[in-house]
Amino acid sequence: MTWGINEWVAVISAIVAVVSFGLNWLVVRRQTELQYETLRAEMDAEVIAWTHEAIDQVSQAITLARGRGLTYSADEMRRLSHETCQRLSSIADRGRLFFPNESPETHGRDKEAAFQGYRPPILDAVVFASTRIGRLDAGVTEPDTAAAEFLAKCRRLLVSEAQNAIDPRRRGQMLRRLAVGRLDDKTSAYTLAAELGEGLESLFPGYLLERRDAAWIAKREAIARPRAQ
Q1: By the 8 A CB rule, do 140 and 67 touch?
Q2: How confident is the model at residue 179 (pLDDT cuts 50, 70, 90)?
Q3: Predicted model pTM
Q4: SS in 3 state form for 67-126?
Q5: For the chain, what are the domain ranges?
Q6: How many whole angstroms separate alpha carbon 106 and alpha carbon 121?
């Protein structure tokens, strides 16, 4: 059959419409992805700010435990440990805005809504730290190493759970996909980290669990390479 001008115009218009639809779909998809990442970044920023304060206060509690009888007098210990205990208690309750209790329908139904269910581990870390520093015996004139070790474990749990919630590895992948950051920086951070570690090893023999030589640098760079692709 022979097509006339009208038929060709109709076919070309249809092709243009399909191509335009495909391009618009790609643009909308990218905009939606960016909006989602922007919203999540804003939410993550609030969690990060909360985590920073929690880490600082648990670290303060560790400092108090290690400095008891050395850096702080009994009166200072009583005041500072009480203040730190109360700050941690407040931080734990504010953390409930980000990390609600689990299984509220099966446990603690007689409590207020925010306190029904099982407290998540990240809040356990803060609450336990608050309890431990609040019960520190200020009258003893030597460091409380047991309390310091307990509080250090609380801090590690806090950081680990916060990292799980924020997922910084996913954020790094997102930034690479959007071509954000110093992608032209060719300096190996692992080389610099190795130099710092070896510097400490030379000052304090046995400090490093694994020597940071050229093989260590190559192994770390090989591990990181797939994430950068």
Answers
A1: no
A2: very low
A3: 0.70
A4: HECCCECHHHHHHHHHHHHHHHHHHHHHHCCCCCCECCCCCCCCCCHHHCCECCHHHHHH
A5: 5-185, 186-229
A6: 18
